[in-house]
Design goal:
Shape of chain A: globular
Oligomer: homodimer
Strand order of the largest sheet of chain A: 1-2-3-13-16-17-18-19
Largest sheet of chain A: 8 strands, parallel, barrel
Structural class of chain A: alpha/beta
Strand content of chain A: 15-25%
Largest interface: A-B, 73 and 72 residues
Mean pLDDT of chain A: 95
Helix content of chain A: 25-40%
CATH architecture of the largest domain in chain A: Alpha-Beta Barrel
CATH class of the largest domain in chain A: Alpha Beta
Distance between the termini of chain A: 44 Å
Number of domains of chain A: 4
Chain lengths: 733, 733
């Protein structure tokens, strides 16, 4: 076990029963000041004496299975859509609505099927009248009496969740069916349903009374799970971390209609099979639903938090699982009154997502790896490597905005089998505390202008663009996700702005550069928003007045008025869709430019823009041109500037290139001499109040870099993955 | 000079003055039976004694420059669109309509500007009323009095062509301005204009009388050039081999209105800057214009052909240059009464394009290289290599459908400097004649079902899909162009079918497999045509009845009803647009399948489908899967079958794979044993009437291949680029 650390605190350790002595040593080594249990572990009695604070998980929506089984009419619902079925003739068309779904997870809910189910002829877009179909409850077979031959039909239907999503996931993933077959398959209950809310409140009160050792109630989470559906072979079929499909119920939909004055249709939820993915341009109805459920969840969650506080405990929310309705950048979140949020660090962006959450007293990040046998084994597992990767990835974000606390999760007994892992996380815990201590609580200086990320979602999805399943890598998305991943560790204040907000209030005064990044037709690019002359006019005049605009991939894209990229005049580029192949291209290639000064070889645009991009404006300077397609270009528009990237997957060089592009677009190339390092593997944070700067080495090799600032140059050597603090004592500020 | 050939004829040789003796030897060596002049060469007096037929070029629309200069009001017009100009404020917006155009090629035509010019606010799509703008004729500056700030404007305007397109191209490309500055810059005249038609007819009569040595008048071509515009730096700015923008005039547009009962707008021609590229889904107005001008051109061309015939000469048309209005698969073409068409072979598809032209007595192909100094030089030029490539490329098509004649063009004196080139084309001429002689005039057997290529254009653009500038390679198009390039040399009857034709008459009885290949939103994929339930229903029922459907790239693509590939149920695949990333994919990968049996390693899909493709149907078999995206898949639909390719650039293996896919989709895998060779570099043609088969080696290496047919197997060895004829004499048919 490593020796005692230089400082202590800010660290939460997962613990378990039966290894008290080792826990004592480990708490000391890490300087941990809090402990927690995990799903499947129990707190030992020694917990309270080890540390200042004891956390315990708490599951409001599935914690009491005895009660759940006694109240089968309280299951949480989920909207599902049947497969697309093609009618092969005029005879009645039978559709097994559950085809392809996992029958242990769902069963059809037959409550008022005429109201909540919807059969659509997808070929014409017409709803099949209720009189035109019937459903057999015994089999779940829906029959369309007289289909149009060769038309495609779908059935949207309300299902009961007969197995709680997260528990099902853990159960199946960990093979509990084999290893622990007596374990119950937990059922979720919906607080909108008969008696549930009264029970949930009382159960929490009871639990608090019977768990005086718990200081912090770690809600995991509240009431509605993000969308997961498994398939007929018990595999994941659909996963959407932002999905609201499992936040529905007849009660909620009725309440919505009563309040909003219009009725939501099944189609508003299943959305043609797209299920309102965050990549879809959100419909007004879906936005209303988000607001409706978020308000409801916040009100109810606040009551649980109030109960927790009344019992003298803290209330912490785990950001994940049943988090629907608690989007932390939504307008209702702060009203919940939580003390803290804890979340998993899958990337710099998700770390910033947690770090920047407003309306809570403190935030905590759970680093990877989770202490599970998939990594903690002697058969190829690399816990040290994963710890390093997690730390390096998140550290960029933590430097910009230190989270208050860190921790790990899982089975600590597993981790203890790997002394070199314990040693490494001991160092990480110290480095984490050092960032707080050496910065003196001061945030490092940012550029004198803010960066606005412009999309359909705006602030609601702060740091959450291009995500599907949390921070999981997606081939289609990583070339865009790199933008916020880079920003999460760069010296800029970042504002996430929606088209609506900008239309209503203009671009905020402090924003110097706007970024629009995404594939055509997605919420992140904006789709039809760009056919709105108010938006294009507003952005054009704003750029021309001396601001910057950065487009990535297919920015401002919609087929309108003879253009596809609507701001092709600003960006100086256009996306080829095989409709202008007749036009010759004579791009002006520029070798040396401040934006691409750190790019060696070919600029890496990941998956690119999905097709060729060409220069349109006479003044467009093409900085990277590969196989007849623009990868990087710059253009001037009035007194403003624009930069185009065909893709921007995260890498140290691309992050640095984005930083350069932001300075250049804002007309502030002078900042390239101000707290800027020569090696792209490194980043500099400057603390003016401390007269101190931090250089981090994001690579696993030793680096030697120059650092420029205040007209001076420092040569700094940094060990692999290391960081160096330097005091600036001999220079006048 | 090589010895005299085994047979003679079918060959046209370009000749020139001053080398009579060498011409005599060359005519003998090649077995040439016709000679021609070229642009810039004159026929020597010996011509008529050398060969049976003497061709002479003839330019009906620019041949008499003295007359052109005397009649300056007869210039051909062209529709152009100004650059897109963004208004930066409410003050009057001045647009130099000619900005970016070549002022030696065009000048604005101010005839009735209020009728023929059109100013459009592209941001709103609204036409700016004529009262809202004015144009200064001295400068070509159009001023919009009160623009909307930050809106984008364009001006569509009629221009005079003050320099004939082809002559300008040759003049600039060959640097005649330096080498021959006295050469006149020729002006084109429009037969719709004052007195032109009378002059053109009379000029032809006069010319025929004064050129009794000419047997064949090679019209180059008739009246309207395909679209070419040069830019301000005298470079090609826009080229569209199918463009009708240069077929316009006030006279024609007025006549159209009188006949069709509606007025065409400038926008109908400039098409938002897309200029009705063949990749655009054609508008009804544009289709009407094609028909209107084609009918007019055919009527007038017929008169010239009649004059030619009356003088006892043949009339041949060069397919190119001023060919607008004479599309050879259009319904008016045959009425012209031409004896022959000659065209350039840039690919197998363009060779078939010429070979299959209906309504003429014979066709002729001009092989590459053209005898120009760009290839015929001793400084890296490779005339033999180019001749081989041209021959190998076209031979595939010629075997399937022999053209009647072949030839070359350019300056023969240049070619004579390269004896090894003369030797090689001597062999090629003999091989060309042998294909006619050994096949006995019989076409090789095709598969017992026809292949339909389904797109917006149908038969009008037979063999002309995905072309921009003739057979020029385009990065965006080659992955689709490979489909017809492959078909041009494969043993299938090919029908080019339009959506309209199929909707009106169904799929023709003889068609066994339909192909829809193209990028979303293009005329070749079909765009909005696929939102028409009649079309999808018709194709679904047709496939389900036992036919085949092959989709390439983004077939049947339009955003409609929760799907993008509308026949995703038939194809079993769907194109990811970042809207269904939440859905997990479990493709069924199949290692061995008849369709991909010749693919070694990774299937080459060229540029691919522009994004990821995933399997949708449970039965979809994925035959090639790269980085999470389907490249080849097969699916069954009712009694029919479908094959999907994400791209199909031409290569011997891909051509073979398409052949396999066609057999498989038609349910005729048995054909893989019938006149099929084991080596994909080879192709087999079977002549049942001759009881003889031909195996061609399309590669530059010697091959040994098995040939299967009639239950027998032959082992055939073929030299590089060679071919082998084999008689089947010992087997009963």
């Amino acid at each position: 076990m490593p020796p005692s650390p230089r400082t202590t605190g800010r660290v939460t350790l997962p613990i378990e029963e039966g290894i008290d002595d080792r826990l004592r040593e480990l708490v000391a080594a890490l300087g941990a000041d809090a402990v927690r249990n995990s799903d499947g572990t129990w707190l030992p009695e020694v917990a309270a004496e080890l540390v200042e604070k004891v956390y315990s998980t708490y599951f409001p929506a599935r914690g009491d299975q005895e009660w759940a089984l006694a109240h089968p009419d309280t299951l949480v619902n989920q909207y599902l859509m049947s497969p697309r079925i093609t009618a092969t003739g005029p005879e009645p068309l039978r559709i097994d609505v559950m085809e392809g779904y996992f029958r242990e997870q769902f069963r059809p809910c037959y409550e008022r099927v005429e109201r909540f189910w919807e059969v659509i002829d997808r070929t014409t877009g017409q709803v099949v009248p209720v009189q035109g179909w019937s459903v057999e409850e015994a089999t779940g077979i829906l029959t369309i009496a007289r289909p149009e031959p060769w038309h495609v039909y779908t059935v949207a239907f309300l299902a009961d969740q007969v197995w709680d999503t997260t528990q099902m996931y853990n159960y199946i993933t960990n093979g509990w069916g084999v290893t622990d077959p007596t374990r119950v398959k937990e059922r979720p209950y919906d607080i909108r349903k008969n008696g549930v809310w009264e029970h949930v409140r009382q159960a929490l009160r009871t639990w608090l009374e019977s768990h005086p050792e718990v200081d912090v109630v770690r809600f995991t989470t509240f009431f509605y799970h993000f969308t997961i559906a498994f398939d007929a072979e018990a595999r994941e079929k659909l996963v959407d971390w932002f999905g609201y499909s499992a936040s529905v119920s007849p009660e909620a939909i009725d309440a919505f209609e009563a309040e909003y004055g219009y009725a939501l249709r099944a189609e508003d939820f299943v959305d043609g099979g797209y299920y309102n993915s965050p990549f879809r341009v959100p419909t007004p109805a879906f936005r209303d639903w988000i607001d409706f459920q978020s308000r409801f969840v916040a009100q109810r969650a606040k009551e649980l938090v109030d109960i927790t506080h009344a019992a003298g405990r803290e209330a912490m929310m785990f950001l994940g699982d049943n988090w629907i309705g608690t989007e932390p950048y939504g307008e209702h979140f702060a009203s919940i009154g939580l003390d803290a949020v804890v979340g998993s660090a899958g990337s710099a962006a998700t770390t910033r997502l947690i770090a920047d959450i407003p309306g809570v007293r403190y935030t905590e990040v759970r680093f990877l790896p989770y202490f599970f046998p998939d990594v903690f084994n002697h058969d190829g597992g690399d816990p040290v490597g994963e710890a390093n990767e997690s730390w390096l990835t998140s550290r960029r974000a933590i430097v910009r905005r230190p989270l208050d606390r860190m921790g790990y999760g899982g089975y600590v007994s597993l981790a203890l089998e790997f002394p070199e892992f314990i040693e490494r996380i001991t160092e990480i815990c110290q480095e984490f505390r050092d960032i707080h201590d050496r910065s003196g609580g001061e945030l490092p200086a940012n550029a004198p202008f803010a960066v606005g990320v412009l999309n359909s979602w705006g602030s609601l999805r702060t740091w959450q663009t291009h995500m599907v399943a949390h921070a999981k890598w997606y081939k289609a998305a990583y070339s865009y996700g790199g933008v916020v991943e880079a920003l999460a560790g760069l010296p800029f204040e970042v504002r996430f702005l929606s088209f609506d907000e900008v239309l209503a209030h203009g671009v905020p005064e402090e924003v110097g550069v706007l970024i629009n990044a995404g594939a055509a037709g997605t919420a992140f690019s904006g789709g039809p928003a760009w056919a709105d002359e108010r938006l294009t006019g507003l952005i054009r005049s704003w750029v021309a007045a001396g601001h910057g605009f950065i487009g990535v991939g297919e920015p401002t894209a919609v087929d309108h008025g003879g253009a596809f990229l609507q701001l092709s005049d600003v960006l100086g580029v256009e996306r080829e869709r095989q409709l202008t192949l007749s036009t010759d291209r004579y791009p002006v290639l520029v070798e040396d430019h401040p934006v691409t000064a750190d790019v060696e070889g070919v600029f890496d645009d990941g998956e690119g823009a999905g097709g060729d991009v060409y220069a349109t404006a006479a003044g467009t300077q093409v900085l990277s041109y590969v196989e007849g397609s623009v990868r990087v270009a710059v253009n001037e528009f009035g007194a403003g500037r624009a930069v185009y990237f065909s893709g921007l997957p995260y890498s140290p060089v691309n992050s640095r290139t984005l930083q350069r592009a932001l300075y250049w677009a804002a007309g502030r190339e002078d900042l390239l001499e101000e707290w800027f390092s020569s090696d792209p593997a490194t980043e500099v944070a400057w603390y003016p109040g401390q007269r101190r700067f931090l250089v981090t080495n994001n690579s696993s090799r030793a680096v030697r870099t120059s650092v420029r600032g205040m007209g001076r140059t420092w040569e700094v050597e940094i060990e692999p993955m290391g960081l160096v603090w330097t005091d600036v004592t001999d220079v006048e500020c």
